[in-house]
Design a protein that fits this description.
Blueprint: H1 19-34, H2 41-50, H3 57-72, H4 74-80, H5 90-99, H6 105-111, H7 124-131, H8 145-148, H9 156-163, H10 167-173, E1 180-184, H11 191-200, E2 206-207, E3 214-217, H12 227-230, E4 234-236, H13 239-248, E5 255-258, H14 265-273, E6 279-284, H15 287-300, E7 305-309, H16 316-319, E8 324-330, H17 345-348, H18 351-369, E9 372-382, H19 391-400, E10 404-406, E11 425-428, H20 430-433, E12 438-445
Parallel strand pairs: 5-6, 5-8, 6-7, 8-9
Antiparallel strand pairs: 1-3, 1-4, 2-3, 9-12, 10-12, 11-12
InterPro entries: MeTrfase_RsmB-F_NOP2_cat, MeTrfase_RsmB-F_NOP2_dom, RCMT, RsmB-like_ferredoxin, RsmB/NOL1/NOP2-like_CS, SAM-dependent_MTases_sf
Domain SAM-dependent MTase RsmB/NOP-type: 170-446
Protein name: rRNA cytosine-C5-methylase
C-alpha cells in the first residue's frame, strides 16, 4: 500500500496526521522493513521518510514509535498470534501490539475504519485472530525465555557465557526504550552552555553519570531541529561511545588514527579531546560513510581531520607503519549491545555472521597494530555483548602479538570514571550502566628492547 500524495494536505490545522493515518504510516514502514530483510531498519526508515517529506517531525516520531514497538516485541507478538489463520502481516502485528498495550478491541476496529487515510477495516479472519488478545499483556511467564526476552534461541549459550546468572536481568533491560544521549562539543562551549541552550528550546537534559561531556534526554526528542545541534554545540552520541573515546586519551600533540571511522562520531569526539590540534586520520572501507562525515566535521568546527578510504592493494598503511600515537579500532561487530536501539538486528543475526565477524575483527586488529608506534596505544572497541568478539578476541591478539600488553590500570586516563579505571578493559550494559552495550580494551605497544653489544673476546 502506498500513501497518496494528497496526504500532505490532509490536515486542517498544523499538518498533524490523525492517529489512524499514523497507524497506516507505521504499517507501511513495517512493510518496507520486511521487504528489505538484510537492511538495517533505521536505514529503511530514513529512506522511507525522505520519500515522504510532507510528513512532519512529530508525525515521523509517532510513526517510528509504533513501528519500533512492533520490532521490539516481534517474537512475543508472534507467540501470541501462533495458530492465526493466514499470514501474520504488519497490519496484524500493529493491531496485536496495540491490544497487548491496553487498547480495546473496539478502539482497534475504529482505527481500521477504512475512512480517509485509515487502514481498510479488519477482515473477519483478522478479527478472529485478534479479539482473544484483548486484556492480555505482551510478556507472559508461559513464553519460553528466549521469546520473552526477545533474543534468538541459538545465542543463549553465548549470552550466559557473558552474564552468567545475570543473563535474564541483562536481557530484560535490553527490551527497554533507549535514552537519547548527547555529547557536548567543548570546542564550542561548556556542558552548562549546552544545558541552557537546550532548555531555551524546551529540551530538558540532565548530565550523564559517567561521561564528563554527556547529556541525556528521555525518549525521542527533536534534537536535530535545535539550534544547539545546528551550531555544533551538541552531537548525538551514546554515553558508552563517549567513554570509548575517553579511554583513548587522545592529546593535542598526538597523531591519531580512527581506523573504522564510519560517519565520524568518535572522530569528532577525538578532535575535541585534542583541542582541534594534532592530526587525526579517519579511515573506512565505505566511501559513503566517510563522505557523510564531512558535514558533521564542518558543523562541529573540526579542522584537524584527514579522511582516507581504505582499498585493496593500498600502500597507505605500509608507508605509515608505526607512526600513530593512538589507533582506535571501533570494530565491525554483531551489534548485540545496541539491541534496545536496533531491535530488528536480533532478527537478522545468524551464527554464520558471528563466525565471519570474529575472523574480520582479528584481521583488522593485526593490520591496525602495525600502525601503532612503539609506546603508542591501540584501543579496541565493539558494541557487542559476546565474549568471542570482546575479551576472547583480545586474548588471542595478545598471544599473536607479544609486543602489545594491556595498559596498567594506574596508567589509564583520568577522564574515565573511577569504576572503569580498575582494569584495562571494561564493558558497559543498559542494566548496570544505563548505556548501550559496549566493550573496550586499551593496549600499549612495547618499546623494542635495546640490543647490548657483547664485549669482544680476548
Amino acid at each position: 500500500m502506498h500513501w497518496p500524495l494528497a496526504l500532505r494536505g490532509q490536515t486542517g490545522y498544523g499538518g498533524d496526521m490523525t492517529p489512524a493515518a499514523r497507524l497506516s504510516g507505521a504499517i507501511d514502514l513495517l512493510c518496507a522493513i520486511q521487504n528489505a530483510p538484510r537492511r538495517p531498519a533505521d536505514a529503511t526508515a530514513n529512506a522511507f521518510f525522505r520519500e515522504r517529506r510532507y510528513i512532519g517531525g512529530g508525525d515521523r516520531r509517532a510513526i517510528s514509535t509504533l513501528a519500533w514497538d512492533v520490532l521490539r516485541g516481534w517474537r512475543r507478538l508472534h507467540w501470541h498470534l501462533e495458530g492465526s489463520q493466514g499470514d501474520i502481516s504488519p497490519r496484524l502485528l500493529c493491531a496485536a501490539s496495540m491490544l497487548l498495550s491496553g487498547t480495546t478491541m473496539d478502539q482497534v476496529r475504529m482505527m481500521f475504519s477504512g475512512e480517509r487515510y485509515a487502514q481498510n477495516p479488519l477482515t473477519p479472519r483478522e478479527d478472529i485472530n485478534l479479539k482473544h488478545l484483548e486484556g492480555k499483556e505482551l510478556s507472559s511467564q508461559k513464553q519460553p525465555i528466549a521469546i520473552r526476552l526477545e533474543y534468538p534461541d541459538w545465542i543463549e549459550p553465548a549470552l550466559r557465557e557473558t552474564f552468567g546468572s545475570r543473563m535474564a536481568d541483562e536481557m530484560e533491560a535490553m527490551l527497554g526504550t533507549p535514552t537519547l544521549d548527547l555529547r557536548v562539543n567543548l570546542l564550542k562551549g561548556t556542558r552548562e552552555d549546552a544545558l541552557r541552550a537546550l532548555k531555551r528550546e524546551g529540551l530538558n537534559a540532565v548530565p550523564t553519570k559517567l561521561s564528563p561531556w554527556g547529556l541525556r534526554l528521555d525518549g525521542r526528542q527533536p534534537v536535530t531541529a535545535a539550534q544547539a545541534f545546528k551550531d555544533g554545540l551538541v552531537e548525538i552520541q551514546d554515553e558508552g561511545s563517549q567513554l570509548v573515546v575517553a579511554a583513548a586519551d587522545a592529546r593535542p600533540d598526538n597523531r591519531v588514527l580512527d581506523y573504522c571511522a564510519g560517519a565520524g562520531g568518535k572522530t569528532l569526539a577525538l578532535a575535541m579531546t585534542m583541542e582541534n590540534k594534532g592530526h587525526i586520520v579517519a579511515c573506512d572501507v565505505h566511501e559513503k560513510r566517510l563522505e557523510g562525515a564531512v558535514k558533521r566535521l564542518r558543523r562541529a568546527g573540526v579542522h584537524n581531520v584527514e579522511r582516507h578510504l581504505l582499498v585493496t592493494g593500498d600502500k597507505w598503511a605500509k608507508r605509515r607503519a608505526a607512526s600513530f600515537d593512538r589507533v582506535l579500532v571501533d570494530a565491525p561487530c554483531s551489534g548485540t549491545g545496541t539491541w534496545r536501539r536496533n531491535p530488528d538486528a536480533r532478527l537478522r543475526l545468524t551464527p554464520e555472521d558471528i563466525q565471519e565477524l570474529v575472523i574480520k575483527q582479528s584481521e583488522i586488529l593485526d593490520r591496525a597494530a602495525s600502525l601503532v608506534k612503539p609506546g603508542g596505544r591501540m584501543i579496541y572497541a565493539t558494541c557487542s555483548l559476546l565474549a568471542a568478539e570482546n575479551g576472547q578476541q583480545i586474548d588471542a591478539f595478545l598471544k599473536r602479538r607479544t609486543d602489545f600488553v594491556r595498559v596498567p590500570t594506574e596508567d589509564l586516563p583520568d577522564l574515565l570514571p573511577a569504576e572503569l579505571r580498575e582494569k584495562a578493559q571494561f564493558s558497559l550494559t543498559p542494566l548496570r550502566d544505563g548505556t548501550d552495550g559496549f566493550f573496550a580494551c586499551v593496549m600499549q605497544r612495547l618499546e623494542p628492547v635495546a640490543q647490548t653489544e657483547e664485549a669482544p673476546s680476548t
